[in-house]
Amino acid sequence: MSFLYPRKAFNKHLEVLNNFINKYVDAALAIPKDELEKLSAGDHKYTLLHALAANNSGPRTFLRDQLVASLLAGRDTTACTLSWLFYELGKSPDVFEALRKEILDVVGPSERPTYEQLKSMKYLSAALSETLRFYPAIPVNQRSAIVDTTLPRGGGPDGLSPIGILKGTAVLYSTFGLQLQPEHYEHSDIDPLKFKPERWLNWHPQPWTHIPFSGKSYTLFCVVTEWRVEQSPGGTLHRKL
Q: Is the pTM of this model over 0.85?
């Protein structure tokens, strides 16, 4: 039904975005391949765009789309996660005090945290993981089957038997609901419905029971003064932007 929505204004704004991004894409593509290969992740001038340009064999639009997707994913997920974290800190004085103590012990009262200091703060990482457990970046999502397939659960009188999914069927799932299911916390003494970062200090979720980004890996830590990419809870390590 998307064809019923007016696209004139959308296309106009999209053109502005593309024109802005394209000049950076063209500049990266203009760098000779041998110069791109000399750059490394430790180089101050090295960016995600350089990495994409060095390995690009597709159309120019591929680089543009990948760059926009990375920037949007990093900005929105970071903003939402930090907003929910501050919300929970306002409700939980004990969590606030524990986090504040760790920051003062590691960073100090007035210093700017370094990348290594951010990585070393276990309680900060636990607080972010707990925030993503309660408020996943993608709380509800949908996928459509591209072939006839089967899901391992959902069928039968008790919902525990396999169920057939025909090609073209849309499947809606709730990451929010999945991550709060009591059955996933059998080996934890902490109530899954309570915001408790301490659980992450000695508890690890089973595969595919904690998927705040729907099983994908996206930028989370863009909290320092420069863009960097750290391992987001439930994700994998990526390059510095």
A: no
